[in-house]
Amino acid sequence: MAYLNNHGSATIFMGVVMPVVIGACILLSDVCLYDSGKRIIENSINASAHSILGKYSGYLKDNYDLYAFCMSDERAMALAGDNLLMNLDDSKMFDFKIEKISTEKSKCINNKYVILGMLEKAAPDDVYQSMADEFLERFDILSGLGGAAGIITLKMKIDKAYQKIKDSMAALEKIINGGDNLKYYVNLAGLNTDFAEAVDTFNKYRFELAGIKSEIEQLVLEIEDGPSEKAGIKMLLEEQAGVLREKAADVYMEFIEGVVNGLKEANKTAVSYIRDIFIENVNIHVLSDAIKDNIETINDCPDYLKDILYTCTELVSDVEEAFVEQVFEEIRIELNKNISILSELETIFKTTMEGEDEDLSKEISDAAEKYNTGVIYVYNEDLIAGRDTDKRSFFEELGKRVLEKQIGKDKCIQENVILPSVGTDSNNREFKVTSLGEDTKSGENEIKEFSSSVITPGRALLRNLLVNEYIMQHFADENSRSEERVAGSFFKNETEYILWGAKSQNANIFFTKAAIMSTRFALDAIHVYTDSGKIAKANAIAAATAGWWTMGAGIPVMSNLVKISWAIAEAGVDTRKLWQGQSIPIIKTAGDWITDIGTGSAGIKSPGFLKMDYKDYLRLYLMAMSMDKKIIRLLDIISLNSHGYFNVFNAYTEVTVTALVSYRSLTGGRHEVEVSATQSY
Would you state the pLDDT for residue 29? Predict the structure, then answer.
């Protein structure tokens, strides 16, 4: 029986197959080693990035709930390297070596988009959202008042039109009867005295000149018949004629032309004032119709308020048409006649000066006598003011006093301090309503802004509300208690700085007061213009003080100015109370009114949920503010307060660590892996 010879099989396996198997195992082991080493490196570099983030500013976290690290590139790289070494497996199996390492910081908090993302993360939605909702409940009440505020704006434009009529009438009286040291005016009596004497002198020179010219003509004929000594006489007469011409020209230039042109200009100016009166009368009618149309289209205004607003249309009547058409039309006719007569005189004198020989003295005299120096118009401005009775100046002063009062010692940002908002304009706020009738433009603008901008709830986006609430929770304002302020705060009124951006602490106080007074003026004006008791009181004062200058048409404008003065005074009282931490009703009832205007304050007071405090008004203005300015000024405050702790220009929220690491290979040589890890808060 034959046996298979297996001698040498083991040798062949060991010599050929086994090395391949061992090589494959080593290769597979090295691949596993490479993957394991790479994972260890990746985890270690991630940990290194986290170690940098872990060195966040405790000051920023404790005071503002924000995370950012602030360190030099060298320190960041050293920290990452040390952490990487600590986390890498230092066993003989891998023999890790860091060949190269670098760090890159990014997303500096000086970037408005970065800080905005941080604020959204810092805002606990449930808390801030509930605060925002509570504010919006009050804010929604304002949205229904836009139409009413718009009507008050039109009402003030009517006030302004009345004021222009009043000013034109006062100026008209002066240009007709003389005043303010006017040299020429319509009723200048000199046209019949000095003017007449000048004309007589002018005509005398012209008459003498005509006689001399006749003598010269006779001498010319005699000289033509033959040589005569009369040539010398002719020359003397010609010199006399030249002198007379100059005298006549001087009289014309000095005593005649100036009077004619001056009177002509005075009459034209008077006509222009009457034209202005007509134009403003038309404007009043147009505005009154606009008020009616606006009331019809208001949808968000309470019905009771809409009904009362109809009383605003009772501003123009047949009385105004009567005094304009009957009184001023007659005056305008007389003025135009005067202008025509003066033009005729100009033509006559021009003809005479051009050397016509005819005697025009009678034509001059007849034309001059036609000129009307007795245009009847009297305007007594003293009857308009009535300031001692209606006390408008007192109420205006009461309101202004709140604005002008400074609180505490001022503190200013120095010019050499570099802030994130460098180059950003500040928001200057003013409040210049005058209650004495000179101009209602300021009041008109404040109400227009209130009705068209501030109360528009479309800006109340969630992001805007959350950022606003973050500001209210983390930054001090004038009503904040000392324990609520960040230690070492630069400004006492940080939120006010965010709103207005003035480098002076007292300037931010003034701008805040002006903003609150403008808003309160708008709201208080709506109440005054719609409260029956105050309307009756204002009309009674107007009837007693307006006088007869417009045959009764002055009563509406006087009534409106009285109401404006009340709204100014009440706005000042409201601003002072809000500054002291009290709450004020959004729209007041008669029972809420504070200023004593002789109407009493009987009635039901507004409930608490219809009131707003100082912080609510700050929220109101923050809502109307651009997000960019809010964020950049917020960083200003952090920068001012964090001096000595960290620099906002070198505070980051993201870091990237990149490292080239080598480690042992089972096949000989070393593996190299370059890994990057980016981490952020």
Answer: 63
Grouping H, G, I as helix, E, B as strand and the rest as coil, residue 659 is strand
Rg (CA), the chain: 46
One-letter amino acid for residue 616 of the chain: D
**Which residues touch 620 (CB under 8 Å, ≥6 apart)?**
139, 454, 519, 612
Does residue 446 contact residue 431 with C-beta atoms inside 8 Å?
A: yes
pLDDT in tens, 615-637: 999 998 998 888 889 999 999 99
| Percent helix / strand / coil, the chain, rounded to 5 | 65, 5, 25
Greater model confidence, 13 or 104: 104
Q: Give percent of the chain above pLDDT 70.
A: 68
Q: Is 162 exposed, middle or buried (0-12, 13-18, 19+ CB in 10 A)?
A: buried
| Phi then psi dihedrals of residue 69, to 5 deg | -110, 150
Q: Which residue carries 């609150």 as its tokens?
A: 516
Q: What is the mean pLDDT of residues 455-472?
A: 74
Contact 497/636 with Cβ under 8 angstroms?
yes
How far apart CA 549 and CA 117 sit, in angstroms, is: 65
Rounded to whole angstroms, how far apart are CA atoms 195 and 200?
9
User: What does the pLDDT look like over 383-393, one tens digit per residue?
Assistant: 443 444 567 77
CB 459 within 8 A of CB 624: yes
Q: In this structure, are strands 97-108 and 670-680 parallel, antiparallel, or unpaired?
A: unpaired
515 bridge partner residues:
none
DSSP helix/strand/coil, 390 = helix
Cβ-contact 212, 240 below 8 angstroms: yes
Using the structure block, give the residue that is written with the tokens 């597979």: 28
pLDDT tens, residue by residue, 202-244 = 666 666 666 666 666 666 666 666 666 676 676 776 777 676 6
Q: Summarize pLDDT for 193-205 with one digit per residue, the tens.
A: 566 666 666 666 6
Q: 477-499 burial by CB neighbour count: b if 16+ within 10 A, else e?
A: bbbbeeeebbeebbbbbbbbbbb
The neighbouring-strand residues paired with 677 are 657
Full-model pTM: 0.69
Spatial distance between the Cα atoms of 70 and 57, rounded to a whole number of angstroms: 7
Nearest to 148 by CA among 297, 44, 269: 297
Pairwise CA distance, residues 431 & 519, whole Å: 10
pLDDT, position 318: 40
How is residue 180 annotated by DSSP?
T
Question: Taking all residues of the chain, what is their mean pLDDT, rounded to a whole number?
Answer: 77
Q: How many CA atoms lie within 13 A of 338 on its CB side?
A: 30
The span from the CA of 29 to the CA of 559, in Å, is: 99
| Torsion 670-673-674-678 (CA) sign | negative
The rounded Cα 29 to chain-centroid distance in angstroms is 75
Return the pLDDT at 549. Answer: 44
The beta-carbon contacts of 355-363 under 8 Å, at least 24 apart in sequence, are: 357/210, 357/213, 359/203, 359/206, 359/207, 361/199, 361/200, 361/203
Distance CA 257, CA 262 (A): 8
Query: What is the CB-side half-sphere exposure of residue 151 using CA atoms within 13 A?
Result: 31
Phi, psi at residue 266, to the nearest 5°? -65, -45
- Is 424's pLDDT higher than 80? no
